[in-house]
Specification:
Elements lengths: L1 E10 L2 E7 L4 E5 L6 H13 L19 E9 L2 E10 L2 E6 L2 E2 L12 E4 L5 H4 L2 H15 L1 H23 L3 H44 L6 E6 L6 H14 L1 H7 L10 E6 L2 E2 H4 L2 H23 L4 E5 L7 H10 L4 E6 L10 E7 L2 E4 L8
Length: 369
């Protein structure tokens, strides 16, 4: 698949913009604050139903306007799909081929994109919630049903936590909580099993890519940290046993202390915890390896290539590493932003420049630079 075009109205600093993309490599250059990141943000909004930069939809509306619109046309193996998002006083709405969708989960899987920005280094060094979000976002891109599953889990978790917070008599809690334990453990079994499968598919290509990027000097290992069990039913039983065992602790805390909402992913570099021991440069390489490995996993699941979006990533890499990454992009559409690109790919690509929310592109594709 590849993004054919993007159209924006009142989106961030864009009053009215339209841009066409090459099916291969696209280099979007320009100074800071000109609108490069806003452009790729609009694509991820239409892919994921949310911005990778803000949790407040109003932030994406241009100042002193009543609405914003972002439209993306995606070419798939089976034909073109147009995805639209409109945010106005009534809220946020999504459309597929001009038809409004009723459930957000219907949006997933139409534009499947791997996105990487400098902010994604948090996947390695920040709290476990960053790593859980990374997993859940990626899996949801491939499966709207998984997204719905996580939403159901969060609703059940809310009900269980409400009992723990608001009821202070131990026996009253025990009388009410069993039904929520059963539901929570059942949903947790499916979520954890799906996450484990995803990490299992991701870890081998990520290890291989990390070796390639580091010139065979560093070995990356990725593992899921959570309940034991090979099947969803085995995991459910483990979670249920833990919920019952930890009930006194949960009553004291006022919330549920175990489950997929508390799990983590561990990154080890040469056998050491990358969160603690990896340098910033190594963290960047780990996330790059992770993101490029996602391309492999997504391609296997989809039966076609996903889109790769790199927002201001190459500026931190030396020329040798840039060249190594370009060599890995063959066959994929890549959309990357940067203040400048000192090293260009030795293949066909399209150059675009953004200045004050005006997008200018060459009227030809440069080959064999």
């Amino acid at each position: 698949m590849f993004v054919k075009w993007v159209k924006l109205k009142n989106f961030r600093n864009y009053t009215d913009a339209s841009v066409e993309f090459h099916s291969g490599i696209n280099l979007i250059s320009g100074g800071n604050g000109q609108g490069k990141t806003n452009l790729v943000e609009s694509m991820m909004l239409c892919a994921l139903s949310k911005s990778p930069r803000t949790s407040h939809d109003e932030d994406m509306k241009m100042e002193n306007t009543t609405f914003t619109e972002a439209s993306v046309c995606v070419e798939r193996n089976f034909g073109d799909i147009t995805l639209d998002c409109r945010i106005d006083e009534s809220g946020k709405k999504f459309f597929i081929n001009t038809n409004e969708i009723k459930k957000v989960s219907e949006l997933f899987g139409n534009l499947v994109a791997v996105y990487f920005s400098p902010n994604d280094l948090k996947i390695v060094y920040a709290s476990p919630s960053e790593r859980r979000d990374f997993m859940d976002t990626d899996i949801s891109e491939l499966s709207g049903s998984y997204y719905s599953l996580v939403q159901r889990y969060n609703k059940v978790l809310f009900q269980r936590n409400r009992i723990l917070k608001t009821i202070h008599n131990r026996q009253d809690i025990l009388d009410q909580i069993d039904v929520w334990n059963e539901q929570l453990a059942t949903l947790a079994g499916y979520i954890i099993k799906t996450r484990k499968n995803f990490i299992e598919k991701l870890k081998t290509p990520a290890k291989k890519i990390m070796k390639y990027i580091s010139k065979e000097t560093e070995e990356l290992n990725i593992s899921y940290v959570g309940a034991n069990g090979e099947t969803a039913d085995e995991i459910k039983k483990e979670i249920l046993k833990s919920l019952e065992f930890n009930i006194d602790r949960d009553m004291e805390l006022g919330y549920t202390s175990i489950g997929p909402h508390r799990d983590d992913v561990k990154f080890e570099l040469d056998g050491r915890d990358a969160r603690i021991f990896a340098s910033q440069g190594q963290q960047r390489s780990i996330v790059l390896a992770l993101k490029i490995a996602e391309l492999t996993v997504f391609k296997e699941e989809l039966g076609e290539n996903p889109v790769l979006i790199l927002d201001d990533v190459f500026s931190e890499l030396d020329t040798a590493r840039q060249k190594k990454l370009y060599d890995m992009f063959d066959g994929y559409q890549v959309i990357m932003t940067g203040t400048n690109f000192k090293f260009k790919p030795n293949s066909s690509y399209k150059q675009l420049n953004v200045r004050k929310a005006t997008i200018k592109s060459k009227d030809f594709v440069i080959s064999n630079n």
